[in-house]
Amino acid sequence: MIANVNAPVRKTEIFGWCMYDVADSGFTTVIVTALYPLYFGSIVVGDPHRADFLWGVAASVSEIVVAGLAPVLGAIADFSGSRKKFLGGCALTVVLFTSSLYFVGPGMAGLGLTLFILSNIGFAGGGVFIDSFLPGISNPSNAGRISGLKWAMGYGGGLFCLALCLPLARNIVDHATPQQLAGARLVPLVVAAYYAVAVVPTFIFLRDRSVARPLPEGESTLSVGFRELKRTLQKIRRYRELFKLFLAFLFYNDGIVTVIYFSARYAKETFGFTASEISTLFIAINVVSAGGALLFGYLADRIGQKRAIFISLCLWITALAVGYLAPSKGWFYAVATLVGIGVGSAQSVTRSLVALFTPKENAAEFYGFLGVAGKTMAFLGPMAFGTISSISGSQRPALLSISVFFIIGIFLLSWVDEQGGIAASRLPVDA
User: Fold this and answer.
1) Which one of 298, 387, 421, 428 is most buried, by most CB atoms within 10 A?
2) Is residue 304 classed exposed, middle or buried when 0-12, 13-18 and 19+ CB atoms within 10 A define those classes?
3) Cα angle at 248 between 123 and 52, to 5 degrees?
4) CA-CA distances (angstroms) from residue 66 to 46, 88, 113, 117, 376?
5) Run of H or E residues at 210
6) Which pTM does this prediction carry?
7) Using one digit for the tens of pLDDT, what is the confidence trace for 143-183?
8) 8 A C-beta contact, residue 191 and residue 165
9) Span 11-210+219-425: which CATH code?
10) Helix (H, G, I), strand (E, B) or coil at 365
11) Residues 137, 276: contact at Cβ < 8 Å?
12) Rounded CA gap, 289 and 295, in Å?
């Protein structure tokens, strides 16, 4: 069936696009950020500083794999008109390997890391493909609002999934009873089931507007993927503002990713938060993040996407400085508020700016480059945090070191010409 790329965009289609974040956020809130890191550190590993290092390794490996695969798979998806199929493959990967985390018990660090890496690859890869649908369902006047709505709905979904899992993992401690351990091991099964249900509207309502092109004689989809990738690289000059944005995103997203991976462990090890308190903290962060995504979506459409990102990155630097100096739990709640606004805004507005800079017919391939920009160095932040924490015996200097990524990101973003990038996206791709 040939996709009708000019079909009117319906509200149900936007809803379907947003629902992928509702599913995804259950995984990232519970497995990546709030509960599984505590289970991994306290139950599986038992040594907090070794756990920081191993958790950084797991994050780094999964980010590197997606960085290598994203642009080629994006090019194949564009050429074959099969973005939705690739998206489905990523969703199945998340469900399968997340549910498999049930089998990870005390001392099984290798299995826990391997299954987490595989599920996280599916999660990160899905983010590349779902983002590639945005240029086809938005325009310069509403891209920020639509992207912000998706992020806001996603944080609501993460909040709901966390609430489902909290009774099972409320008492994750260093010496868990058999009953507490049995409950905590059920958490990945709940997340996998939630993900499988929440993602269904995406595949019902979201239209795949990519159009398949016939394969040249003697070529496979893989060889075409590499050829299309090479062709895009050769035309990089035409989209130089887009690639300058990718370069800036490469740095500041590394900082964001690192904070996401280690925030729960930082709260537990540095401030003594219990699992229950951490869950309450992340409920508050999700609420603030949803508001931040919506607020910055409207703000970006009014003052420009680039300016909105600048404001968000300044909030991130402030949050890290306060987190480094914070003497008590009360101060850390203030840090969490700033982080919540930053998470809900920087990535959301960046995605909408990429949509404005991207030719629609190359959306998956260009979002594959966004995946590269977001993950080529995304291993560096988690590895730096884990290494500094392990060597120094303190998470505070490890957290402060992450501010460097945001400072470099601000500097590089200042060189991006927003209007020039929008104009370039309207040029014929083969001109």
Assistant:
1) 421
2) middle
3) 50
4) 29, 16, 16, 11, 9
5) none
6) 0.76
7) 768 877 887 788 789 889 998 998 888 766 556 677 878 88
8) yes
9) 1.20.1250.20
10) helix
11) no
12) 10
Residues in the chain: 431
**DSSP readout, 37-94?**
HHHIIIIII--HHHHHHHHHHHHHHHHHHHHHHHHHHHHHHHHHT-HHHHHHHHHHHH
Sequence ranges of the domains in the chain: 11-210+219-425
Closest by CA position to 201, among listed 29, 11, 9, 365: 11
What the block records as the tokens of 265 is: 């462990």
What pLDDT, in 10s, does the model give residues 45-69? 878 778 888 988 888 888 778 777 7
Matching residue, tokens 């086809």: 136
In terms of Cβ atoms closer than 10 Å to its own Cβ (0-12, 13-18, 19+), residue 294 is: buried
Q: How far apart are CA 243 and CA 357, in angstroms?
A: 9
Q: Which residues does 173 contact at the CB level (< 8 Å), separation at least 6? A: 42, 180, 275
Question: Which residue is it, tokens 């905590």?
Answer: 184
